[in-house]
Design a protein that fits this description.
With 237 residues, the chain is α/β, with parallel strands linked by helices. Helices cover 29% and strands 20% of the residues. A hairpin with a 7-residue loop joins strand 4 and strand 5. The longest helix is centred in the middle third of the chain and has 15 residues. The protein is globular, with a radius of gyration of 19 Å.
Length: 237
Protein backbone atom coordinates (compact mmCIF):
# COMPACT_ATOMS: atom_id res chain seq x y z
CA UNK A 1 0.00 0.00 0.00
CA UNK A 2 1.30 3.45 -0.93
CA UNK A 3 0.65 5.73 2.05
CA UNK A 4 2.41 8.64 0.38
CA UNK A 5 -0.45 9.11 -2.10
CA UNK A 6 -2.99 9.58 0.69
CA UNK A 7 -0.71 11.85 2.71
CA UNK A 8 0.30 14.02 -0.24
CA UNK A 9 -3.35 14.57 -1.13
CA UNK A 10 -4.26 15.80 2.37
CA UNK A 11 -4.17 19.27 3.90
CA UNK A 12 -3.52 17.83 7.36
CA UNK A 13 -2.31 14.50 8.67
CA UNK A 14 -3.38 12.90 11.95
CA UNK A 15 -1.34 9.88 13.02
CA UNK A 16 -2.07 7.40 15.80
CA UNK A 17 0.70 5.08 16.98
CA UNK A 18 -0.47 1.98 18.83
CA UNK A 19 0.83 -0.71 21.14
CA UNK A 20 2.43 -2.61 18.25
CA UNK A 21 5.30 -0.10 18.30
CA UNK A 22 5.94 -0.30 22.07
CA UNK A 23 9.26 -1.81 23.16
CA UNK A 24 8.63 -4.98 25.18
CA UNK A 25 11.91 -4.71 27.15
CA UNK A 26 12.53 -8.40 26.53
CA UNK A 27 16.22 -8.04 27.39
CA UNK A 28 15.54 -6.13 30.63
CA UNK A 29 14.29 -8.61 33.21
CA UNK A 30 12.33 -7.45 36.28
CA UNK A 31 11.29 -9.34 39.41
CA UNK A 32 7.67 -8.21 39.46
CA UNK A 33 6.12 -6.17 36.65
CA UNK A 34 3.37 -4.89 38.96
CA UNK A 35 5.89 -3.70 41.56
CA UNK A 36 8.79 -2.67 39.39
CA UNK A 37 11.52 -0.79 41.23
CA UNK A 38 12.90 2.58 40.20
CA UNK A 39 16.26 0.92 39.58
CA UNK A 40 14.68 -1.54 37.13
CA UNK A 41 12.95 1.41 35.46
CA UNK A 42 16.30 3.18 35.32
CA UNK A 43 17.78 0.13 33.57
CA UNK A 44 15.03 0.38 30.99
CA UNK A 45 15.76 4.07 30.50
CA UNK A 46 19.47 3.35 29.97
CA UNK A 47 18.56 0.63 27.49
CA UNK A 48 16.26 2.99 25.58
CA UNK A 49 19.00 5.64 25.49
CA UNK A 50 21.29 3.09 23.83
CA UNK A 51 18.80 2.28 21.06
CA UNK A 52 20.17 4.25 18.16
CA UNK A 53 18.41 2.16 15.54
CA UNK A 54 16.07 -0.80 15.36
CA UNK A 55 13.07 -1.82 13.24
CA UNK A 56 10.68 0.52 15.06
CA UNK A 57 13.01 3.51 14.85
CA UNK A 58 13.51 2.75 11.15
CA UNK A 59 9.71 2.80 10.74
CA UNK A 60 9.45 6.12 12.55
CA UNK A 61 12.11 7.60 10.31
CA UNK A 62 10.14 6.48 7.27
CA UNK A 63 7.04 8.12 8.78
CA UNK A 64 9.13 11.27 9.24
CA UNK A 65 9.83 11.35 5.49
CA UNK A 66 6.17 10.64 4.63
CA UNK A 67 4.82 13.59 6.63
CA UNK A 68 7.67 15.98 5.89
CA UNK A 69 6.31 19.39 4.94
CA UNK A 70 2.76 18.55 6.07
CA UNK A 71 0.68 20.01 8.90
CA UNK A 72 0.49 17.02 11.23
CA UNK A 73 -0.08 15.81 14.76
CA UNK A 74 0.84 12.45 16.25
CA UNK A 75 -0.76 10.69 19.21
CA UNK A 76 1.18 7.72 20.53
CA UNK A 77 0.29 5.07 23.10
CA UNK A 78 3.97 4.20 23.49
CA UNK A 79 6.01 5.46 26.43
CA UNK A 80 9.42 4.25 25.25
CA UNK A 81 10.25 7.61 23.59
CA UNK A 82 11.65 5.97 20.46
CA UNK A 83 9.66 8.25 18.20
CA UNK A 84 11.68 11.16 19.58
CA UNK A 85 14.82 9.65 18.04
CA UNK A 86 13.73 11.14 14.71
CA UNK A 87 13.46 14.68 13.38
CA UNK A 88 9.69 14.69 13.77
CA UNK A 89 8.75 17.87 15.62
CA UNK A 90 8.42 16.84 19.29
CA UNK A 91 5.88 19.64 19.81
CA UNK A 92 3.61 17.77 17.40
CA UNK A 93 3.76 14.50 19.36
CA UNK A 94 1.67 13.77 22.44
CA UNK A 95 2.27 10.64 24.54
CA UNK A 96 -0.60 10.36 27.06
CA UNK A 97 0.69 7.08 28.46
CA UNK A 98 3.84 8.71 29.83
CA UNK A 99 7.56 8.73 29.24
CA UNK A 100 10.70 7.12 30.62
CA UNK A 101 12.29 10.57 30.48
CA UNK A 102 10.06 11.87 33.29
CA UNK A 103 9.60 11.28 37.01
CA UNK A 104 6.77 12.23 39.37
CA UNK A 105 6.04 12.02 43.07
CA UNK A 106 4.65 8.57 43.91
CA UNK A 107 1.82 10.23 45.84
CA UNK A 108 1.44 13.17 43.40
CA UNK A 109 1.79 15.70 46.22
CA UNK A 110 2.29 18.42 43.58
CA UNK A 111 1.90 18.76 39.82
CA UNK A 112 5.68 18.97 39.40
CA UNK A 113 7.29 16.68 36.83
CA UNK A 114 11.04 15.98 36.86
CA UNK A 115 13.58 14.79 34.31
CA UNK A 116 15.04 11.42 35.18
CA UNK A 117 18.33 12.69 33.83
CA UNK A 118 18.53 15.16 36.70
CA UNK A 119 18.66 12.21 39.12
CA UNK A 120 21.15 10.20 37.08
CA UNK A 121 23.93 10.33 39.68
CA UNK A 122 21.54 9.48 42.52
CA UNK A 123 20.29 6.38 40.68
CA UNK A 124 23.79 5.40 39.56
CA UNK A 125 24.80 5.45 43.24
CA UNK A 126 22.00 3.02 44.08
CA UNK A 127 19.99 5.64 45.93
CA UNK A 128 16.25 6.11 45.52
CA UNK A 129 15.32 9.60 44.29
CA UNK A 130 12.92 11.43 46.59
CA UNK A 131 10.28 14.06 45.99
CA UNK A 132 11.78 17.41 47.04
CA UNK A 133 8.40 18.48 48.45
CA UNK A 134 7.23 15.56 50.59
CA UNK A 135 10.10 13.08 50.65
CA UNK A 136 8.14 10.23 49.06
CA UNK A 137 9.82 8.21 46.30
CA UNK A 138 9.89 9.48 42.75
CA UNK A 139 8.57 7.07 40.10
CA UNK A 140 8.51 7.04 36.33
CA UNK A 141 5.70 9.20 35.00
CA UNK A 142 3.91 6.52 33.01
CA UNK A 143 0.50 4.92 32.97
CA UNK A 144 0.56 1.95 35.32
CA UNK A 145 2.31 3.61 38.24
CA UNK A 146 0.49 3.87 41.58
CA UNK A 147 -1.00 7.33 40.94
CA UNK A 148 -0.37 8.49 37.41
CA UNK A 149 0.08 12.25 37.05
CA UNK A 150 -1.19 13.58 33.72
CA UNK A 151 0.84 16.76 34.00
CA UNK A 152 3.62 15.28 31.90
CA UNK A 153 1.54 15.38 28.72
CA UNK A 154 -1.35 17.80 29.35
CA UNK A 155 0.29 20.81 27.69
CA UNK A 156 0.76 18.93 24.42
CA UNK A 157 -2.69 17.34 24.73
CA UNK A 158 -4.26 20.79 24.88
CA UNK A 159 -2.22 21.77 21.82
CA UNK A 160 -3.49 18.63 20.07
CA UNK A 161 -7.11 19.47 20.95
CA UNK A 162 -6.65 22.96 19.49
CA UNK A 163 -5.08 21.48 16.34
CA UNK A 164 -8.02 19.09 15.95
CA UNK A 165 -10.41 22.04 15.82
CA UNK A 166 -8.64 23.15 12.68
CA UNK A 167 -9.34 19.89 10.85
CA UNK A 168 -13.03 20.65 10.33
CA UNK A 169 -13.89 20.83 6.61
CA UNK A 170 -10.25 20.23 5.69
CA UNK A 171 -8.86 17.29 3.75
CA UNK A 172 -7.37 15.29 6.59
CA UNK A 173 -5.58 11.96 6.26
CA UNK A 174 -6.12 9.91 9.41
CA UNK A 175 -3.46 7.24 9.70
CA UNK A 176 -3.97 4.72 12.51
CA UNK A 177 -1.03 2.35 12.94
CA UNK A 178 -1.13 -0.71 15.17
CA UNK A 179 -3.79 0.62 17.54
CA UNK A 180 -5.59 -2.13 19.45
CA UNK A 181 -8.29 -2.09 22.11
CA UNK A 182 -6.13 -1.54 25.20
CA UNK A 183 -6.88 2.18 25.40
CA UNK A 184 -9.58 2.72 22.73
CA UNK A 185 -10.69 6.07 24.18
CA UNK A 186 -7.30 7.65 23.40
CA UNK A 187 -6.93 6.95 19.68
CA UNK A 188 -9.22 4.32 18.16
CA UNK A 189 -12.65 5.73 18.99
CA UNK A 190 -11.75 9.45 18.78
CA UNK A 191 -10.08 8.91 15.38
CA UNK A 192 -13.20 7.14 14.12
CA UNK A 193 -15.27 10.10 15.27
CA UNK A 194 -13.02 12.61 13.48
CA UNK A 195 -13.41 10.56 10.30
CA UNK A 196 -17.18 10.35 10.77
CA UNK A 197 -17.85 14.08 11.23
CA UNK A 198 -15.41 15.27 8.55
CA UNK A 199 -16.78 14.68 5.06
CA UNK A 200 -13.35 15.30 3.53
CA UNK A 201 -11.49 12.83 5.78
CA UNK A 202 -9.72 9.71 4.58
CA UNK A 203 -9.16 7.07 7.26
CA UNK A 204 -6.52 4.34 7.02
CA UNK A 205 -6.42 1.61 9.69
CA UNK A 206 -3.40 -0.69 9.72
CA UNK A 207 -3.25 -3.62 12.14
CA UNK A 208 -2.18 -7.26 12.16
CA UNK A 209 -5.69 -8.44 13.07
CA UNK A 210 -7.76 -5.59 14.58
CA UNK A 211 -8.18 -3.86 11.23
CA UNK A 212 -11.99 -3.96 11.06
CA UNK A 213 -13.91 -0.81 10.19
CA UNK A 214 -17.22 0.49 11.51
CA UNK A 215 -20.22 0.87 9.20
CA UNK A 216 -20.29 4.63 9.78
CA UNK A 217 -16.89 5.28 8.20
CA UNK A 218 -16.23 2.36 5.86
CA UNK A 219 -17.10 4.40 2.75
CA UNK A 220 -14.22 6.80 3.46
CA UNK A 221 -11.85 4.31 5.04
CA UNK A 222 -9.24 1.76 4.05
CA UNK A 223 -8.54 -1.35 6.10
CA UNK A 224 -5.07 -2.88 5.87
CA UNK A 225 -4.30 -6.20 7.52
CA UNK A 226 -0.55 -5.94 7.97
CA UNK A 227 2.21 -5.34 10.47
CA UNK A 228 2.32 -1.51 10.63
CA UNK A 229 6.04 -1.41 11.46
CA UNK A 230 6.87 -3.42 8.35
CA UNK A 231 4.39 -1.48 6.25
CA UNK A 232 6.11 1.79 7.14
CA UNK A 233 9.59 0.40 6.62
CA UNK A 234 8.63 -0.73 3.11
CA UNK A 235 7.23 2.63 2.01
CA UNK A 236 8.90 4.37 -0.92
CA UNK A 237 9.35 8.07 -0.17
Amino acid sequence: MNLKEYIDDADLVLVGIGETFQDKFETIKVQDEKNITIFEEYSRKKYLDSCIADEVIDAYKKLEKLIEGKNYFIVTLCNDDKIFKTNINPERIVAPCGSYELLQCEEVCTEDIYLMGDFEQVLANGEEPKCPHCGNPLVVNRLGCKKYSEEGYLKKWNLYMKWLQGTINKKVCILELGVGMKYPTVIRWPFERVAFINEKAKFIRVHDYLNQLTEEIKEKAVSVKANPVELLRNQIV
